[in-house]
């Protein structure tokens, strides 16, 4: 069989609802929008906004959010078209199987595994740090050595500096979220909806309270003049800031991994993707406008917590606790959606024979790929508890951008090779919009450091070894 043999779209849809490996369809448009918001809004909103304003764009960081949102919109529209045509689990993996063939599908599926696993580990470690800080505000002190991995140094109560032993809070959140996902997608979406309401309420509270403490002089000049160096203010600064905060939008693609658990995926998945992007964009614009109005962008340089600085300008110290709570809720929902996407991608790859059958084993009562969730709980929990994952953070970005590029290319290919297929949602201005999506994402990838590219190449080489040693011989498409 050719390495680039494609799986017919009709066959993919037929197999998705056949046999004992069928997922339960319970999600509506509101649940899918909540999943998207849950994945997009994380601590990046509270940290990246100040950095981009201080170092690159000044108050014009608001415009940078517009540019980043437009870039994400191109990819989001392409995801929506493919999801309306191929409403099954697997996201970019499944789409590339239908458009570019099995080898490309394996590469992107293996890439998504890295994206979701590394991201979940990194977020779990960050979740642990904020929970420790939050508890400390209430006088609860956790043992320092049990909140850090063996590669990190911690300071004990007596001032002694020692190595950590294990990051128990990070492991705990991975275990709790994994158990929730095993019990059922309906229950998981309910919990995610509650968390999303809390963190959106926190963001709206900051916007509403902060608006009354804006110093309008801070918006002058709105676009600071360029210093003579590319990326430091001016137009180039706005574009550089857009590249920095682009990653605050990443996460909406995880909505497409839940397509097979949506009641009406052809309509609801595009609503979930585009709806969550629109809501988050509005919140991001308002948040950045208020933050740069409360704190002058020049004072944010070197400030590790510009949001805390802004809150200190108000007579409401309880806002600080609310922001921490919002960040913790943001991290929790991000972990939930990442682990959901992880298991659904492996579920689809296992159904196609490219991975062992255990990953597509569906629990008879819960109707979830519980073994896949259990395996990832152990794997990701181990890394979150024993390794400093922060250096691998860029791997999430490069993996996501590669997936975006393949999805945009998939729209172009299917429009050319199978124009007769029913498309409940169509990307406007084809081929312009998909091409712009490819160019924007490619420019983001080229801005990442060489070490990140090397790690990606090594990971993909490991995946190719597994593909040629196991997956190619067990592929259901090859056997058929």
How would you characterize the overall build of this protein?
There is one protein chain. With 480 residues, the protein is mainly α. It has a single domain, classed as Amino acid/polyamine transporter I. It contains 17 helices and two strands. A two-stranded antiparallel ribbon has the order 1-2. The protein is globular, with a radius of gyration of 22 Å. The protein starts with 8 loop residues before the first helix and ends with a helix. The mean pLDDT is 85.
Which CATH C-level class is it? Answer: Mainly Alpha
Helical content class: 55-70%
Instruction: Walk across the major sheet and give the strand order.
Output: 1-2
On the 0 to 100 scale, the average pLDDT is 85
């Amino acid at each position: 069989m050719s390495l680039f043999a494609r799986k017919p779209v009709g066959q993919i849809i037929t197999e998705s609802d056949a046999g004992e490996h069928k997922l339960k369809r319970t999600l509506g448009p509101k649940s899918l929008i909540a999943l998207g918001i849950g994945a997009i809004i994380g601590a990046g909103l509270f940290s990246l906004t100040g950095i981009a304003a201080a170092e690159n764009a000044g108050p014009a960081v608001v415009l940078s959010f517009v540019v980043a949102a437009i870039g994400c919109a191109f990819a989001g529209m392409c995801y929506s078209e493919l999801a309306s045509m191929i409403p099954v689990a697997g996201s970019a993996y499944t789409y590339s199987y239908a458009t570019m063939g099995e080898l490309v599908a394996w590469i992107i599926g293996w890439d998504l595994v890295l994206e979701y696993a590394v991201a979940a580990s990194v977020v779990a470690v960050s979740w642990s740090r904020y929970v420790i800080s939050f508890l400390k505000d209430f006088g609860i002190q956790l043992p320092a050595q049990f909140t850090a991995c063996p590669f990190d140094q911690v300071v004990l109560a007596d001032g002694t500096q020692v190595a950590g032993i294990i990051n128990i809070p990070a492991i705990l959140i991975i275990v709790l979220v994994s158990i929730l996902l095993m019990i059922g997608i309906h229950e998981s979406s309910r919990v995610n909806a509650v968390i999303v309401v809390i963190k959106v309420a926190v963001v709206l509270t900051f916007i509403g309270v902060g608006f009354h403490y804006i110093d309008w002089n801070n918006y002058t000049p709105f676009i600071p003049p360029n210093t003579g160096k590319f990326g430091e203010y001016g137009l180039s600064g706005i574009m550089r800031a857009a590249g920095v905060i682009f990653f605050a939008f990443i996460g909406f693609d995880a909505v497409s991994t839940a397509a097979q658990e949506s009641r009406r995926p052809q309509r609801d998945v595009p609503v979930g993707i585009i709806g969550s992007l629109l809501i988050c964009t509005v919140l991001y614009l308002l948040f950045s406008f208020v933050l740069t109005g409360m704190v002058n962008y020049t004072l944010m340089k070197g400030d590790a917590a510009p949001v805390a600085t802004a809150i200190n300008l108000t007579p409401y110290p309880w806002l600080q606790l609310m922001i921490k709570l919002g960040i913790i809720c943001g991290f929790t929902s991000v972990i939930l959606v990442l682990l959901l996407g992880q298991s659904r991608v492996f579920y689809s790859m296992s159904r196609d024979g490219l991975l062992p059958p255990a990953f597509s084993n569906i629990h008879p009562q819960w109707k979830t790929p519980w073994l896949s969730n259990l395996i990832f709980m152990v794997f990701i929990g181990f890394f979150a508890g024993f390794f400093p994952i922060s250096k691998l953070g860029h791997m999430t970005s490069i993996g996501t951008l590669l997936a975006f590029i393949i999805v945009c290319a998939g729209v172009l290919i299917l429009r050319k090779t199978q124009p007769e297929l029913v498309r409940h949602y169509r990307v406007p201005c084809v081929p312009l919009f998909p091409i712009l999506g490819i160019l924007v994402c490619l420019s983001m990838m080229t801005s990442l450091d060489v070490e990140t590219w090397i790690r990606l190449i090594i990971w993909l080489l490991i995946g190719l070894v597994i593909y040629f040693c196991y997956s190619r011989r067990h592929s259901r498409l090859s056997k058929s």
